């Protein structure tokens, strides 16, 4: 599980340095009360969105001025650190515990996008099925973080248990005693 969590964070963290990935997180960041302040013009993102693989120099220039790429590189660096620390837990449990803790915390921010990002839900464009509970492609992408949250929790709990065992501390559901 540690390796799976590490792969997710390392891969997605590395992609944050590529413009198409930075562009794709713009609606989430622009609508987030936790992140929108990193952008220079979060309210105007909708007119400057591109599709994956699309190169539009005017929209790209707007993203540069918006700090889309600067923020994405910062986020990518954090994700790379989380992935590396989680992977390092195979050899150093204390470092791995910090990585697992950070890996466990990030899905809470990501899952908040289901509340803050209109693009997470199917828009009302004439069909009867729109809004909650109809997740759009972006929403389906975000909701998968529930599995990442569960996996990170398992890694966190396993790493903490192993560290306590090294210290010869026995922890049960009902008691804690030092041997």
Automatic annotation (TrEMBL):
Highest taxon in the source lineage: Bacteria
Signal peptide positions on this chain: none
An individual GO BP term: response to hypochlorite
Membrane-spanning parts: 70-90, 97-117, 137-157
Key words, A-Z: Membrane, Transmembrane, Transmembrane helix
One Gene Ontology cellular component annotation held by this UniProt entry: plasma membrane
Keyword Transmembrane helix: yes
InterPro entries with a match to the protein in the record: RclC (IPR016865), RclC-like (IPR007339), RCS_Resistance (IPR053532)
Keyword Transmembrane helix among UniProt keywords: yes
Protein name from the UniProt record: Membrane protein
Organism name: Azorhizobium oxalatiphilum
Gene name, Swiss-Prot/TrEMBL: ykgB
């Amino acid at each position: 599980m540690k390796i799976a969590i590490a792969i997710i964070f390392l891969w997605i963290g590395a992609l944050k340095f590529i413009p198409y990935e930075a562009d794709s997180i713009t609606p989430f960041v622009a609508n987030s009360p936790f992140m929108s302040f990193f952008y220079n013009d979060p309210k105007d993102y909708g007119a400057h969105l591109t599709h994956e693989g699309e190169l539009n120099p005017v929209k790209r220039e707007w993203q540069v001025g918006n700090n889309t790429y600067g923020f994405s590189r910062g986020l990518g660096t954090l994700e790379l650190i989380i992935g590396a620390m989680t992977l390092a837990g195979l050899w150093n449990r204390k470092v791995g515990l910090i990585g697992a803790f950070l890996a466990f915390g990030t899905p809470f921010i990501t899952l908040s996008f289901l509340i803050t990002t209109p693009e997470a839900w199917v828009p009302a464009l004439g069909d009867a099925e729109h809004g909650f509970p109809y997740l759009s492609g972006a929403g389906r992408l975000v909701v998968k973080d529930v599995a990442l949250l569960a996996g990170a929790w398992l890694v966190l709990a396993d790493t903490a248990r192993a560290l306590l065992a090294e210290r010869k501390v026995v922890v049960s559901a009902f008691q804690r005693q030092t041997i």
